Amino acid sequence: MENSTMKDFAELEACYGQLIAWCDLLEAIADFLPCQVDERLCDTITNGLVPLVLVSHQFEERLLSTGLGLIMTEDEYFDANERRRTSRLLDYDSAQEVVETLISLREGGCRLSWDAVGYQLRSFFGSVRRHIRGEREIMSLIRKAMESSDTRQDSPVQTEAA
After folding, report:
1. How far is the C-alpha of 41 from the C-alpha of 22, rounded, in Å?
2. Is the pTM of this model over 0.85?
């Protein structure tokens, strides 16, 4: 398997690791509402969440969307790609809403009830965790298909037959 692709898969996994860590932090915040949200933590999340989601989505688009052709028929590919595109749009919109809510909490002007804030955070991190779980499954299938393809290309039987 190509080294640059493996490096890209590793970078996508690193993004997923950071997103999962932030989901854990958001879950802790949701669990302890109403609470004072630490300003530094809030700043870190509000400044980094949306860009991290975007970078993750760019990796997914480049690596996974293009790799779907290795594991799916053409009809399956178009349906799966559309579902995944919609999921990414929803995650991006939700990330922006979470950032807006955290900023308003930090500034003391949040118009949402504590229950609504908790629901919003739980909805976001639940969706992101599901998204990552699904993308990791796809990544695993693509890796296996790529390794299988590499093995067939390197096979001495195939080389002799050619």
Report:
1. 10
2. no
Q: Is 15 helix (H, G, I), strand (E, B) or coil?
A: helix
- Token readout for 74 is 């053409």
Query: Looking at the chain, how many residues does it have?
Result: 162
CB-facing half-sphere around the CA of 95: CA atoms within 13 A: 24
Q: Helices (H), strands (E): how many in the chain?
A: 6, 0
Q: Tell me which residue of 81, 78, 90, 86 sits closest to 61, measured CA to CA.
A: 81
Q: What is the residue whose two structure tokens read 């398997």? A: 1
Burial environment of residue 32 by CB neighbours within 10 A (0 to 12, 13 to 18, 19 or more): exposed
| Per-residue model confidence as pLDDT tens digits over 84-103 | 999 999 999 999 999 999 99
Other CB atoms within 10 A of residue 35 CB: 12
What single letter denotes the amino acid at residue 135? E
Cα gap 54→92, rounded to integer Å: 7
